[in-house]
C-alpha cells in the first residue's frame, strides 16, 4: 500500500542526518508546456533534480537557464555535454565537484551519458547521477553496469542515481541496478507508481535508486502534490519524487 502524498517528509537538517527531496524527471527537451513543467518541479520542492532529455541543441544553455530560473534552482552539471542528462539543485546544496560522462557510442544509436556531482546538504556528503539508458537491450545492460561502476568510483559512502531506464522492473538492466542499490519505490512506495505515459500511466520505466546506507522515507509519482493537468501537459513522462534520510559525518 502506498502512503498518502501529504505524509512525504519535507527537507530538513537533523542531528546526524539530512532529509532531502530528490526528483527524477524526463522533460522531453522542454518541447511541451514549460510553465506547467516549472509548476510541477516547484510543487515537489526538491533539493536535487535529476533531469533526462534536457535541451541539447541550439541555445541549449539558455533553455536550461530559463528552467532553473523558473524553478528557483541552479544548474549543477550536464545538458548537451552529457548527451541529455542534467542536474539541478537548490541553494541548500554545496557543490564539491561535477563531471559529465559520455558513454561509448554504438553506431546507429543515440549517444548516451551521465550527469554526475558530489554535493553536501545539511552535513551529508552525497554522490548524484542522472541517466537515460538506451532503447536497445544489450547496450542498456552495459550502461547499467557503467552506472554502478561510476557510483562506486565517486569516493562517497552515500549516493543516489535516477533516470529514465527505458525498461520495466524485472528487466535485466532494471534488475542489475536493483540488485546493487535500493529501488526507492520498492523500499517505500508513495504517491503513484507508473511513469509512462502521463495520460495513460501503465508502466514504471523511471526510477530513483539509493545506496544501502540511505533511508528511503517515501518515493513515487507526486500525484498529490502536483496539479494533475500540469503533469499531463509538462512532458511525456511522469516525475519520480523521493524523500531520503542521508547520514552525516
Ranges with pLDDT <50 over ≥5 residues?
none
Strand content: 25-35%
What does the overall shape look like? globular
Number of strands: 13
What are the secondary-structure elements, in order, as H or E?
A: EEHEHEEEEEHEHEHEEHE
Structural class: alpha+beta
Radius of gyration: 16 Å
First CA to last CA: what distance?
34 Å
Range of helix content: 10-25%
* Average pLDDT metric: 96
What does this structure look like?
The protein contains six helices and 13 strands. The strands form two sheets. Strands 1, 2, 3, 4, 5, 12 and 13 form a seven-stranded mixed sheet that branches. The protein has a six-stranded mixed sheet with strand order 6-7-8-9-11-10. The longest helix is centred in the middle third of the chain and has 16 residues, at 137-152. The mean pLDDT is 96. β7 (113-121) and β8 (124-132) form a beta hairpin. The chain is 23% helix and 33% strand. It holds the Pfam family Exo_endo_phos. Keywords: DNA damage, DNA repair, Endonuclease, Hydrolase, Magnesium, Metal-binding, Nuclease. It comes from Streptomyces mauvecolor.
Summarize the structure.
This is Endonuclease/exonuclease/phosphatase family protein. The protein is an alpha+beta fold.
Topology summary:
Blueprint: E1 12-14, E2 17-26, H1 34-44, E3 48-52, H2 60-70, E4 74-78, E5 86-89, E6 93-102, E7 113-121, E8 124-132, H3 137-152, E9 158-164, H4 172-180, E10 182-183, H5 184-187, E11 206-210, E12 215-220, H6 228-234, E13 240-247
Helix pairs in contact: 1-6, 3-4
